[in-house]
Amino acid sequence: MKIKYEVEFVDTGEEFICVPLGDKENHVSGVLKMNQGAKEIVELLKDDTSETCMLDYLESKYDNDTQVLKQYIQSVVETLRKNGLLDE
Amino acid sequence: MIENAFRMVLADRIIEIHCIHNALYRKCKDYLLSGYDNKKTDILVTLHNEDIVYEKSKPFTTKTKTKNGESDSLDDAYYESLAAYRKICEIMPSFNTFLMHGSVIAYNGWGYMFIAPSGVGKTTRTRLWLNEYPKSIVINGDKPLLSIVNEHVYAYGTPWSGKENWNTNTSIQLRAIFVLERTHDDEESSIQELRLSEAYPYLISQTYLPFDKFTMRKTLTLLKTVGERVKVYLFRSTYDSKSIRLAYETAKPKENYSTRI
Lengths: 88, 261
Known about the structure:
The complex is a heterodimer of chains A (88) and B (261).
Chain A: E1 2-3, E2 7-11, E3 16-20, E4 32-34, H1 36-44, H2 51-61, H3 66-82, E5 86-87
Antiparallel strand pairs in A: 1-5, 2-3, 3-4
Helix pairs in contact in A: 2-3
Chain B: E1 5-10, E2 13-18, H1 23-27, E3 43-46, H2 49-57, E4 63-65, E5 71-73, H3 76-91, E6 97-99, E7 103-107, E8 110-115, H4 122-132, E9 137-140, E10 145-149, E11 152-156, E12 171-182, E13 190-193, H5 196-205, H6 213-229, E14 231-237, H7 241-251
Helix pairs in contact in B: 2-3, 5-6
């Protein structure tokens, strides 16, 4: 899976605003608020990847329980999917 | 000067326009570059029939309601005008300037802006403000340009200013942005300052984002500066002068007593 459009992150100090840039035919409206973890998942999705690869990455970086990280990845992926931002 | 080719000044930039319909010249008459001027053009806009076709193809812009409720086709000059402003706004971020949909009022040396999706009541609140503070002027009632100059945010009048055509060819430093929301029945007006993370989604929803990715990114950065430099309030407002006073009294500069004797 991969993020469909280029995205830009605006750092507001307390969280990130993720802005999909769309393209000429699909001028995307709407933004997503994200914490650092969700931002990292979106960064990983700029290249074609899988939930397993994302889990490996997050496990190498954070001490959280594997199941917690897995659910977190799934929730971020589901949010992106609902907003039509994933190519699968 | 011929009416199909003219130069004007918007947000301190010189715009040269080559158009098909001379209605655009008439629309821009208060903003024309006066007299002979050999300053270089900052933005060159050349309009073609395909620009008009493109504007017509966009949703919600092909028909308008007449007074008797019937739909009426708008003429090509109207679409050409939309196309001209779109082309200008595609380039303006290169000059630290961008379009934000809203109504800007100048009062006591500062600018105050109402933003909201169409239909929430920007025009009504603007009217109420003008009634409450008659010395106010409307900088732009619908599509002002905002410009970042030395880390300060200025709002500029433009000829593109909505149905009421409220605009003044001047600029004002922006002090506050009120994000309008309707109140429920019997709910009193309330106002709450928003943090940048809360304000940004509202601001971006009313901002023209250029198609070009580089310029779009620039716009997002400019927008962040607006959120940092201008106070943004969530304003749940009833339709009365009391709510307007609440907005102004909350946002106006506080008196500096140290300068008093």
